Amino acid sequence: MGRTPCCDIKGLKKGPWTPEEDKLLLDYVQASGPGNWRMLPKLAGLNRCGKSCRLRWTNYLRPDIKRGPFTPEEHKSILQLHAVVGNKWSMIAAQLPGRTDNEIKNYWNTNLKKQLRQAALAGEHPALAAITTTADSPAGTAATISSSPAARHAAQWETARLEAEARLSLLSTSGAAAATATTSSSSSTVAAADAEHSAPDIFLRLWNSEVGDIFRSSSSTAAVAREEDAGVLLQRQEGVLLPMEPKPAEDSSATSNVTTAAYGLTADEYQVFLDMAAEDLGGFFHGGGFSQIYQSPSLFAEFQ
DNA sequence: AAGTGCCTCAACCGCGGCGAC
DNA sequence: AGTCGCCGCGGTTGAGGCACT
């Protein structure tokens, strides 16, 4: 390849946008619509790369962007969606109308992750401690999981399950505290709202569903050995996932065998499992997500 | 009032996916 | 089938604002 990135072109402006540049971009997009970001700067009279223009539009200038602090519903949705899909910010953003992936990512990194870590360091949630610390470490869980899809998937499910369980525990604790304490902090507001909703956790519901049954039955026996075989660099210690010493990379030709062997499934069976999970989650996502569920009593009842 | 450290968030960077050729 | 180029995503950075001493 070796293609020169568009932003390497000399003379293009970088850094903060001026109001004049914003107006040029806004006027052009409103007149012609977004698209062809590569050509847009030239057509709009901007001395910026297309990438920068797209980012400015999607994260700041778009008219449907919602400003202001996250609501308790949004807060909870982010927590639960993150437990299910991980750092798929665009996927999470798609469930929160008016919120950008960048905004959610920042919110998570500066707010939610800190909250979880503080709770973990307080000794209330050892599982969270392992998750939040290893996830931050370059040599931690996410970074050291092998490239095997099955291994990644197994680790994601396991991590999400532990995180969801710990979070439920955290919410029940903080919710009870919020019911007795009368502070005005945003976190207690959120906790109070959570306690008020006491809604089921999407991940635990999925975990306890038919999809989870299949996953558990196919992966529970000799789980540790399988995780090692599959290259999942984790070890379980009293319910806490800890990073293991890295093993030499698997031969790529053997990866598909490892994939299915890790679960004790044939390739077809594994695909069926993935399809079922996708279908279950897909229905959830296409149904409008958590905000939709919370706003609709019938949907909420159905979800329980 | 000045200095310092922390936090937030807009913006950048690098990479991968995917369609066009 | 291979290459090119655009787009979008996730991780990271750093300037500016804020709180604290």
TrEMBL record:
Q: Could you confirm whether the keyword Membrane appears in this record?
A: no
Chain's gene name? LOC100831406
- Which terms are listed as keywords in the entry? DNA-binding, Nucleus, Repeat, Transcription, Transcription regulation
Give start and end of each HTH myb-type domain: 9-61, 62-116
The record's InterPro entries line, in alphabetical order, gives: Homeodomain-like_sf, Myb_dom, Myb_TF_plants, SANT/Myb
Q: Where is the Myb-like domain?
A: 9-61, 62-112
Which Pfam families does the protein's record reference? Myb_DNA-binding
Q: Where in the cell is it found?
A: Nucleus
Q: Name one GO cellular component term.
A: nucleus
Biological source species: Brachypodium distachyon (Purple false brome)
User: Where the protein is mainly located, per its record?
Assistant: nucleus
Record-linked SUPFAM superfamilies: Homeodomain-like
Picking any one GO molecular function of the record gives: DNA binding
The name this protein carries in UniProt is: Uncharacterized protein
